[in-house]
Amino acid sequence: MKEGLGDEFHIAALAAMPQSRGLGTGSKMIAFAEEEALRQRFTACSLTVSLGNPDAKRLYERLGYRVTEELPGMSLQRMRKALI
Ligand SMILES: CC(C)(COP(=O)(O)OP(=O)(O)OC[C@H]1O[C@@H](n2cnc3c(N)ncnc32)[C@H](O)[C@@H]1OP(=O)(O)O)[C@@H](O)C(=O)NCCC(=O)NCCS
Question: Of 5, 13, 53, 64, whose Cβ has the fewest other Cβ atoms within 10 Å?
Fold first, then answer.
């Protein structure tokens, strides 16, 4: 779930079981990752989202993540949230 990239704690993969989606599990996992990032003294969290996954992107935006980079040729956007 995590790997350090400079000051960023990167959330490398996020998924909830299909039967539990929409019940807050994803939000809780991100909150847990952010708490762990702060505990390890990272100052930001990042993740990538597919252009074909607008529902996930909306969730990340609601939690404070913003697009910082288009990853060319991969249909992915990198998103970042400052923690402090
Ligand atoms: C994206 C994912 C991790 C979110 O987990 P979750 O437990 O459903 O998230 P929460 O319940 O905390 O939040 C719900 C929000 O997630 C978003 N979402 C994304 N995919 C969803 C799905 N299949 N079902 C329900 N909500 C989904 C919605 O925007 C929803 O917000 P809304 O209520 O405003 O519509 C989960 O839906 C999932 O595992 N999806 C498949 C794998 C995936 O796409 N991973 C992300 C890769 S970047």
Answer: 13
Strand order of the sheet with strand 76-82? 2-5, 8-11, 44-50, 76-82, 66-71
Q: Which tens digits make up the pLDDT trace of 43-82?
A: 999 999 999 999 999 999 999 999 999 998 989 999 999 9
Give the number of the atom of ligand 1 that is nearest the alpha carbon of residue 49: 48
CA of 40 to the centre of ligand 1 (A): 26
- The C-alpha atoms of residue 46 and residue 23 are separated, in whole angstroms, by 23
Q: In CATH, what class is 2-82?
A: alpha beta
> Which tens digits make up the pLDDT trace of 25-41?
999 999 999 999 999 99
Out of 21, 29, 50, mutate this one to test ligand 1's pocket (max ligand atoms within 8 Å of CB): namely: 21
Amino acid at the residue 14? L
Atom of ligand 1 at shortest range from CA of 20: 7
Domain ranges of the chain: 2-82
